[in-house]
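Table 4 source record.
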Amino acid sequence: MRPDLLLTNAYDELMANVLDAKHIGQGVVDGVECEHLAFRGTDTDWQIWIETGARPIPRKYVITSKTLAGAPQYTLRIKDWNTDAIADASAFVFKPPADTAKASLSPENMSEFDEIPPGTAPGAKK
């Protein structure tokens, strides 16, 4: 499961490995009334709090990893969605600073880079 709420297909990504889902009820996150939903997956469980009313946006997101010892939790609290600033897709177009240069990624320029750090034994996992 990808914990990415900003994908255009966020629902598909979030629900891909869901085995069970429950509506827990209403709760308050940072003074905002929300619907609390909980989901169980194969490797992760997650909860989300969605603002009630005219702006049904995520306010809190908790992911619990079931594959790591101690089942650590990761929490994201969203306090200020500035949706008024996003007019259209052009807001996400990369605009490099004027003094930058494009790097060439030819094999000759990339020979010094490797996925495995120097000194790693051959066959070692990353």
